[in-house]
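Hi support team,

I submitted a single chain yesterday and got back a structure, but I'm not sure I'm reading the token output correctly. Could someone confirm the output below corresponds to the sequence I sent? I've pasted both exactly as they appear in my results page.

Thanks,
R.
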Amino acid sequence: MTTLNVAPCTDRALWDATVRTLGGHPLQLWGWGELKSAHRWSAERVLVRSGDASDAPIVGAAQLLTRALPGPLGGFVYAPRGPVVAREPGAEDTPATVPGSAAVSDAIAAHVHRTRRAVAMSIEPDEDAGAFPLSHTWRTAETSVLPARTLILDLRKSEDDLLADMSKKHRQYVRKAGREESLEIRPVETIAQLDVCLEVYRQTSERADFGLHEDSYYHDAFTMLGDDSPVWAAYVDDRPVAFLFMAKSDRTAFELYGGMDETGQRLRANYALKWHVIRHMKSIGIERYDFGGLINDGVTTFKKGWASHENLLAGTWDRPGPGYALWTKGLPLAKRAVRALRRR
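Hi R., thanks for writing in. Yes, this is the structure output for that exact sequence:
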């Protein structure tokens, strides 16, 4: 049996190249860990090699975010949309069978156990439900961080096929909004431009009743992820009426944040804007467009019109540590404080 070696990675270029090569999610990129480290978490990146040699093949990787907890609980360790597992050549849609998702996940969990006190390690593989087998030491988490239910477009399809799979209403609104001469869609390139979009976001949060991070968080996401976190906005008279804040890796585009004001609603600017971004991601070779979760709200109703299907990912799995029963049963307020990350 091959021995798996888990070791920290402190080289940003090597890390991001590995995540991209393995088809990993943008939330596993270095910049996302840098962002979370600036806002009450700490980040460690570990590479899993099939052997002890420093040049042994990399078969997995995980960006591990840790949130300190009170007293003896130590910390909560979380791999957003990870770990990333090497795939067999030609097996583009399933994890590799050797050494496999279970072996890689167990090796990473053993590393966490050796190096810190953690009440739990949680993983959320960016794989379909049932496609990421785990050993019996993992259990389904009682509370997820990112929703497993989502919508993912296959951007390898033609634009005509993507349009045909939309609801009739969405298809009509995409075409109508795209013909609206007053709308101009362009990238957001500066913090000052982003700040105007955040004004739109505040209006959206008040209307839809959801919470926001402080502005500095979005500024950091914009700068720390750089080209991996593009933002687009739809403008009317040089003022944004809708915006879409993305994260992307080589394989996956992922919606982070977005909103629109009353003018944007009237012009259905979000239809034109989202279709513009989908087409752009497709044009640069990205294969998957993830709408960022479906949670049975008004936004979910809007998202579901973009395709005739839904996706169910592997979900959140916990590897229990000392104090896990207290964490899951006795400290619901503390647990929610750490896991209520809908705002990412």
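A quick pointer for reading it: The CA atoms of residues 44 and 308 lie 38 Å apart. Let us know if anything else looks off.

Best,
Support desk
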